[in-house]
Amino acid sequence: MQEEGRDAARLLRRRLFTPKLVLQCLGLALYRLNPVAVMRNPVMFVVWTAAVVVTILAVYEWIFPTPVPEGHLSETFFAFSLAVWLWIIIWLGNFSEALAEERGRAQATALRGTRSEILAKRIRSVSEAASPELVLAENLKKGDLLLIEPGDIIPADAEVIEGVAAVDESAVTGESAPVVREPCEGSNLVVGGTRVLSDRLIARVSVDQGDSFLDKMISMVDGSSRRRTPNEVALTILLTSMTVILLLSCSTLVPFSFYATNHGGHGLPVRVITAVAFLVCVIPTTIAGLLSTIGVAGMSRMMKANVIAMSGRAVEASGDVDVLLLDKTGTITVGNREAIAFLPSPGVTVLELAEAAAAASIADETPEGHSIVRLARERYNVKHDVNFYKGAKFFAFSAQTRMSGIDFEGSRIRKGSMDAIAQWLQGMGAAVPPEIAQKSISAARRGSTPLIVSDNDRVLGIVELKDVVKRGIRDRFKRLREMGIRTVMLTGDNKYTAAAIAAEAGVDDFIGDANPEDKLTIIRRLQSEGRLVAMSGDGTNDAPALAMADVAVAMGNGTQAAKEAGNMIDLDSNPTKLLDIIDIGKQMMLTRGAITIFAVSNVIAEYFAIIPAAFSVTYPELEVLNFLHLASPVSAVLSTVIFNALVMFLLIPVAIRGVSTRAASPIRLLRRNVIVFGLGGLAVPFVLIKAIDLALFYMGLY
Q: Does position 497 have pLDDT exceeding 70, yes or no?
């Protein structure tokens, strides 16, 4: 069952460059050559207009050919070649955007595949659970009661009202580890399309048809239209302004050339087709064609990380964040307490306590139970398992008894909380010794959780559990610090415990004894200082702070109030995911910046490459600047247009996958982009344009 869920989850990450998807995008890119679709991008619309003009001129040249000297190719061939490459540039821009969008639609298709025709077991009341009515999931209404048994697929989003069960949510979240669902806040919501692995649940349908969490997720990735982010809008305005200025400048080339040749008495005027091609070469077509692709790909990378971004603005903001507010439990620390020490009673050896604690934990399936067995094995070489205790009776941990244990050869070993063991001992006429009670209090003051271990009426000692700092979290915080992001830990623990955890984890600052109101105050103070703040939360008490934060990540298993307040939802319900979200946002911003710098550098280089060669027939003095020694004016124009098409083609994977990121401050990243993409953007055009020109020359075309 878990394999089926994992297979469905893997579909969310596949279908990126499959032949079927590429063919589909090729057709969609052709369809988007229509002017209504192209008009959404002003720069590409100018290129589309130029392609139409050149195509008309090519047809005119074909019908009314211009005489050319013997041994030269006709002007018709040049005009049609130029028209074809201009249409290829527009088509490539459409193809890149279509490819990014279809990846999202492929994810939506995979999600829809998890929603087959499911039969639901509807009951009238909790007392009538023995006689459920089978109905199609699509016929369920909000408020219906459901009986969900082991192996059943949950038919709709619902709220657990009775029972405790392990649920496989891998089909939605991608996580193979099952989660526990029970009737308590934060763990009482189940998602349609997931599967119950053990035990039985009774749940109440919490949404109407079409409003489920999976429906919203599908509509998010399968939306045909996407609102542009503020940075995209600003960059589009800048690119459009540049294009308008260059358009006005290029419109004067033909009349000025006629004036220059008439008054100079030498040279030939600039042809309209050359002026149009020159315009396409010098306007920022590369970044204009890939801008939308970068934004769509950023949203897609969020989905790949099992995060639903409610808007592109949230993804952008995650790239600009400079302060992270992090809860201690579950984010900085493991969240599941782990055994760190055995504290024996007087007269009891540590090995004896470790063996008893491990034996009592064999049937304890909680993370705490596993950690006790692991500590006894790794530190004291206790390797006893179920086979060692043949004929023993095991008692699993339960929320009701709050202890686990084993009956074996006259020994009744129990491990549990202080209150549970005290009550157990009381039934045998015994009590917890004062020294053990004092050790328990001392452990609690250190921020640990004490568990008492007893053998019959004899208390053997204490197992100390502690919520330990996650492995590698210190290095991640160091990486964030190098990127100029400040980390602040929030915890309800006292300031001494908070200081110890903060020092161990390596956060920049901490706030102890924090409550939800404090979070809101801290966010307001930081924002008043001009900082962008990110935080995560899962409870109703986190909702006000989530609504105020610039990047607010709500946990998928959190309350409805938290999800509505956040601008992102983490389907894995992993608070540490906030660090990954920052990386994705940074990568999208870096990708956009890198391609923009590369495109602008290309334009500058193309000025020096094309102007001397293309216009030397009009202004012979420019020939001294033709250091590339291009074969002819028409070869210079066509080589530059082909170069633009090739660059856009080569940058499509970069726009979709993103540039590589590293831990560095924004200034260092900007310097790296300028050096790598700026200088590279200046050098590449000279090399490739010359190579294309030579290829055209040796093929005998020009």
A: no
293 is in an annotated binding site: no
Looking at the fold, whether 545 and 593 belong to one and the same domain comes out as no
415 is in an annotated binding site: yes
Q: How many domains does the chain have?
A: 4
Domain identity same for 442 and 363 = yes
Residue reference for tokens 């935080």? 535
| 555, β-bridge pairs | 570
Q: How confident is the model at residue 145 (pLDDT cuts 50, 70, 90)?
A: very high
Decide if 180 contacts 271 (C-beta within 8 A): no
Question: Using one digit for the tens of pLDDT, what is the confidence trace for 393-426?
Answer: 898 887 667 789 999 888 899 998 888 899 899 8
The answer to the question of residue 616 being in a domain is yes
Nearest residue to 204 (alpha-carbon basis) of 156, 169, 164, 165: 156
| Domain presence at residue 577 | no
On whether both 298 and 365 belong to a single domain, the answer is no
Task: Round to whole Å and give the CA distance between 513 and 536.
Answer: 18
CATH number at residue 495: 3.40.50.1000
Percentage of residues in the chain having pLDDT higher than 70? 84
Which CATH number characterizes residue 145's domain? 2.70.150.10
Q: Please state, in angstroms and as integers, the Cα–Cα distance from residue 288 to each residue in 233, 251, 284, 646, following that order.
A: 11, 21, 6, 15
User: Terminal CA-to-CA distance of the chain, rounded, Å?
Assistant: 65
Q: To 10 degrees, the CA torsion angle through 373, 351, 400, 203?
A: -10
Do residues 446 and 527 both lie within one domain? no
Q: Which of 516, 511, 250 is nearest to 502 (CA)?
A: 511
User: Quick one: how far is CA 267 from the chain centroid?
Assistant: 58
pTM to 2 decimal places: 0.63
Of 161-170, 485-494, 499-508, 570-579, which gets the smallest average pLDDT? 570-579
Maximum C-alpha span of the chain: 121
Same domain, yes or no, for 313 and 292? no
In a domain, 113, yes or no: no
Task: Find the helix packing angle between 75-113 and 285-304, rounded to 10°.
Answer: 10
Last residue within a domain, chosen from 571, 594, 621: 571
Mean of the pLDDT values across residues 284-311? 79
Question: 623 labelled as ligand-binding?
Answer: no
Q: Could you tell me which of 197, 207, 203 has the C-alpha nearest to residue 182? A: 203
Give domain status of residue 632, yes or no.
Answer: yes
Mean pLDDT of 595-619: 86
Collapsing DSSP states into helix, strand and coil, what is residue 191?
A: coil
Instruction: Give the range of the structural domain holding residue 516, as residue numbers without chain letter.
Output: 309-334+469-571
Amino acid present at 478: K
Place of tokens 């989905």: 303
**Is 401 flagged in the annotation as binding?**
yes
**More confident: 310 or 455:** 455
- Residue 399 assigned to a binding site: yes
Residue 256, annotated as binding a ligand? no
Whether residues 258 and 283 fall in one domain: yes
CA distance 672 to 652: 21
Using the 3D structure, point to which of 441, 466, 491 is the last residue of a domain: 466
Residues 237 and 102 both lie in one domain: yes
- Residue 110 CA to residue 522 CA, distance in Å, equals 41
Q: Clarify whether residues 362 and 450 are in a common domain.
A: yes
The predicted structure's pLDDT at residue 110:
55
Q: Is the pLDDT of residue 1 over 70?
A: no
Query: Of 632, 590, 593, whose CA–CA distance to 615 is shortest?
Result: 632
The arithmetic mean of pLDDT across residues 608-621, rounded, is 82
The CATH number assigned to the domain holding 419 equals 3.40.1110.10
Q: For every residue of 328-372, which 3-state class applies, written as one string?
A: HHHHHECCCCEEEEEEECCCCCHHHHHHHHHHHHCCCCCHHHHHH
Active site residues: 327
Query: Has 404 been labeled as part of a binding site?
Result: yes
Residue that is written with structure tokens 């499911």 in the block: 118
Inter-CA distances, 236 with 284, 507, 518, 585, Å: 11, 38, 40, 19
257 versus 18: the higher-pLDDT residue is 257
